[in-house]
Each structure stands twice: as structure tokens, then as C-alpha cells.
Design brief:
mainly alpha
Length: about 70
């Protein structure tokens, strides 16, 4: 996390990892396992936990707003 890469690279690594987990997990349980694994991998590589949580929240907020099922929920 302390490398010379631009800040958007760190955000994109998290976003891409979550997108892969969302697309390729066949069950919700598998997705949750991948989500936990991604967080641990990022923490191990020096990403601050607040940065990780903010990026996860940002991704899921965008994902929910793009969902075609949202208008069906009352």
C-alpha cells in the first residue's frame, strides 16, 4: 500500500477483486468466503482497514443502485 502507484490503482484492485467474487461465486456462502479472503489478503499487504471498508461500501452501494431488481422491492 505504500508503493509509488497512483491512489486509484489501490481502489481498482479492491473493486476488481470484489467483481470477480461476485461474478464467479455460485452461492452466497462462496461469495462470503471470497469476500473474507479478499479482506485478509488486502490487510496482509498493508491496506488500512478503513480504506478497505470504504471501498467495499462504495462498490456495494454502486452495485445495488445498478440492480434491475431494485424497483421490485417495496
Amino acid at each position: 500500500f505504500t508503493s509509488d502507484h497512483p491512489r486509484h490503482v489501490f481502489s481498482n484492485i479492491i473493486k476488481t477483486s470484489i467483481e470477480r467474487a461476485t461474478r464467479y461465486s455460485s452461492t452466497f456462502e462462496a461469495f462470503n468466503y471470497e469476500r473474507r479472503y479478499i479482506k485478509l489478503m488486502l490487510l496482509y499487504n498493508g491496506y488500512p482497514s478503513t480504506f478497505i471498508e470504504n471501498e467495499f461500501h462504495k462498490y456495494f452501494s454502486e452495485y445495488i443502485s445498478k440492480s434491475p431488481f431494485l424497483p421490485l422491492i417495496d
